[in-house]
Amino acid sequence: MNVLCTICPQWTVKWRLWDTTHLNSNSTHLNSNSTSISSYHINHKVKSLASSSSSSSSEAETSISGELKRALLEQVDNELNKGDDRAALSIVKDLQSKPGGLRAFGAAQQVPQRLYSLSELKLNGIDTSSLLSPKDNTLGAIERNLLIAALLGFIAAWNAFDFGPEELLYFSLGLFFIWTLDSVGFAGGFSSLVLDTIGHNISQKYHNRVIQHEAGHFLIAYLLGILPKGYTLSSLEAFLREGSLNVQAGTVFVDFEFTDQVIIWLCNQMHFQMLNKFSCIALAGVATEYLLYGYAEGGLADVNTLDGLLSSLGFTQKKADSQVRWAVLNTILILRRHEQTRALLAEAMSEGKSVGSCIDVIEQNIDETNI
């Protein structure tokens, strides 16, 4: 089922669950020790600050100080690094309910959910064909130029070394073997890694677009009440972190609540709220690119993920179109209200700041009147 009608999207930013068990035994031992030490100091600091804060007023009336909030966000990072997603989410939700805590988490104003026509989206300045049909012309041009350069290099080497038919056959078979191994064994991961790495190094436009794309995912998820777990901004970064060619750049989330809701859904107890959040987060990257550049180049995997989910849940074409159009409008309007916050978040992500630090950037710069 093609949820998005005239859509032909293309790009490689992925959603995925991180598995930290790939570390070897030595590094696991070292990380375990350092985590314990870090956890001790953070918890000690949190308790000291909380005790100091509560001494002047009752616990119910105490407003969380900026220093205490930052200490708790450090603890969120610590729990995420340990792989304890539930503990990290528990801290964030506890901060959400406290005066002076996290104002923006799950606080986004959203448009009413109903069937929106394409003309209504156009009245809001949204051209769905430009937003929902991403095609990566930048990487496509780089790939074509690399192929041309490789071909010219081969011709030059052939003339220089006077290769004969036998050498040409061996060379062709070698290239075919490598291409087949990458396609079958790594799902094209090696070629994607090489192309993405070259793209980041020779095209500032591509590099910036990836950062803004992921900042869109991060911000929308946070404002809708889904905790980001981590992010990578290049295939090389993802490979170094995960040790797998099958993992590409992207933003990942603490998503056990969504998984639980899908199970409930499949048991015929429908719960639309979590699906709505997922739909908006999935389209946040292409929506960000659309707002910045007037069109989206990245986001094929994101759109296909949403398409596949709606199909697996038994959505009709009309119902799927309705879900996607609402999500597009809702996401675009949220991003427009918080353009400056997204830009500052993208800057923080480009510097490799932790999830907790990125949350702090959002909280410090969010316009509370426009949440």
TrEMBL record:
Coiled coil: none annotated. It comes from the Eukaryota. The chain crosses the membrane at residues 145-161, 173-195. Keywords: Membrane, Transmembrane, Transmembrane helix. The keyword Zinc does not apply. One of its GO terms (biological process) is proteolysis. GO terms for molecular function: ATP binding; ATP-dependent peptidase activity; metalloendopeptidase activity. This is Stress regulated protein. The lineage of its organism: Eukaryota, Viridiplantae, Streptophyta, Embryophyta, Tracheophyta.
